[in-house]
Amino acid sequence: MPNSPSEPERWPSGEARRVVMRRKGPMLVEGPVEVELEDGSVVSSDRFQVALCTCRRSRRYPWCDTSHRDRG
């Protein structure tokens, strides 16, 4: 199975892309990244790591602005 944990999909550089899930926080993704939104638009970041909002409270969605901390 190509997407199993033992055989990660490789990027052209040969490196696997790392995504870190947090229970009460954002999803951390090694960058640079392009994110396709529900409406089909694409936003991008060239940072070495980005925090993607999973609670949808961010004013900068899809980027996390730590708004999840306000409401716990």
Automatic annotation (TrEMBL):
<keyword id="KW-0001">2Fe-2S</keyword>
<dbReference type="Pfam" id="PF09360">
    <property type="entry name" value="zf-CDGSH"/>
</dbReference>
<keyword id="KW-0411">Iron-sulfur</keyword>
<keyword id="KW-0479">Metal-binding</keyword>
<feature type="domain" description="Iron-binding zinc finger CDGSH type">
    <location>
        <begin position="30"/>
        <end position="72"/>
    </location>
</feature>
<protein>
    <submittedName>
        <fullName>CDGSH iron-sulfur domain-containing protein</fullName>
    </submittedName>
</protein>
<dbReference type="InterPro" id="IPR018967">
    <property type="entry name" value="FeS-contain_CDGSH-typ"/>
</dbReference>
<dbReference type="InterPro" id="IPR042216">
    <property type="entry name" value="MitoNEET_CISD"/>
</dbReference>
<keyword id="KW-0408">Iron</keyword>
